[in-house]
Design brief:
two-stranded antiparallel sheet, Glutaredoxin
Length: 160
């Protein structure tokens, strides 16, 4: 009985650790990795004061389905829109705020999706629950966005 409890405890700790051990990259490092691996890029654009950004960090990204999908299909970048560092995007040194504005971000959180070469795919504004977010991740991660509109994709999956 004790052995079984220990195994269950270790298994639950492992899945929790997997969910929380996302490998967030700095912007320049993440883009370099995406070019090297061919993975798409997810940029989590946030601010320190944003309540819903903290909710995404607390509830959405740690979800085991979300974190496993991200690890397999994306290079993930955290970008503080109010940060001071300079980032290199498309051969130009710009501020995180300039990047965010250029991508159409007008509120936080915002999720920017990029191709592995850094070209923009789309922007997802606002907070998403894990149940909502997984559909966006798979729509983009599996290239469905190249063939059909998102509502059609959801309809084919039986999602309302």
């Amino acid at each position: 009985m004790k052995k079984m409890l220990l195994v269950l405890l270790v298994l639950s700790m492992s899945s929790a650790a997997l969910a929380k051990d996302l490998q967030w990259k700095k912007f320049n490092d993440g883009l370099a990795e995406a070019k090297r691996t061919g993975k798409k890029v997810l940029v989590d654009v946030y601010t320190d004061w944003c309540k819903w950004c903290k909710e995404m960090d607390k509830k959405t990204y740690p979800d085991k389905t979300i974190s496993a999908y991200l690890q397999k299909h994306y290079v993930i970048i955290k970008l503080n829109a109010e940060g001071n560092e300079q980032i290199n995007y498309q051969g130009q040194l710009i501020s995180p705020q300039e990047f965010a504005q250029g991508m159409g971000v007008d509120g936080y959180p915002a999720t920017v999706f990029l191709q592995s070469d850094g070209k923009p795919i789309t922007l997802l504004p606002g907070y998403s629950t894990p149940d909502q977010f997984i559909h966006v991740l798979s729509y983009i991660g599996e290239n469905h966005y190249l063939k059909k509109k998102f509502p059609d994709y959801l309809s084919e999956k039986g999602v309302k």
